[in-house]
Amino acid sequence: MTEQEALAIQFIQQAKHLVFMTGAGVSVPSGIPDYRSLDGVYAGFEAPEYLLSHTCLKREPEKFYQFVKNLYHPEAQPNVIHQVMAELERTKEVAVITQNIDSLHQQAGQKNLIEFHGSLYHVYCQQCGKSVPVTSYLDDDFHEGCGGPLRPDVVLYEEGLDENNVQHAIRQVMQADTIVVVGTSLRVYPFAGLLDYRSPDAKVILVNKEATQVSRDTLTVLGDATKFFEKIKKSEKK
Questions:
Q1: Measuring CA to CA, which of 57, 136, 146, 210 is 20 to 30 A from 18?
Q2: Do the domain assignments include residue 226?
């Protein structure tokens, strides 16, 4: 175990109000590709941002539907990162703020969870407003009940974030004494901007494959996040 890993685990164990901020790198070990890597979701598409935009949904709903179905991985299961976060919630005050829309944190049993960009697994009819099972959406993008178009409850390009989610996330970050950022390069705003609300005394730990620039001093753990979380799991059992 490196010095950085040991110190990070110590901070996590001593934390009274622990906040995790997670990105696509957390779900990659579960078999869900990220967005911008060479073999990611966006690979091979000329204008992926357009395909995930409000404009595409309204003007070319069939094109939107065909693309968004690529984001679903119903076979994916929570990995050790999701599991450890959920386990820590049983013994201390923990919140998870995630950019991910795959609902794996929820599957792992996380209670205090803010899905900052929504979830692919919450689907509703744009005409009557009723929720429908995701399996229905994957079969057909029209509501069997009223015939209206269905959509997943995710924040698309050109759409605003849920203000309740934003305010809840800000409150959690303000209250945190320790913040652990995992699997994200912190390039997407306003998610990355949440760190601006942290207490000056809060410890910030970055767990990522590559270094991430933030404005204040942080403790950085470089490498495979799953291996680091395995070490947290072992330390919790001692």
A1: 210
A2: yes
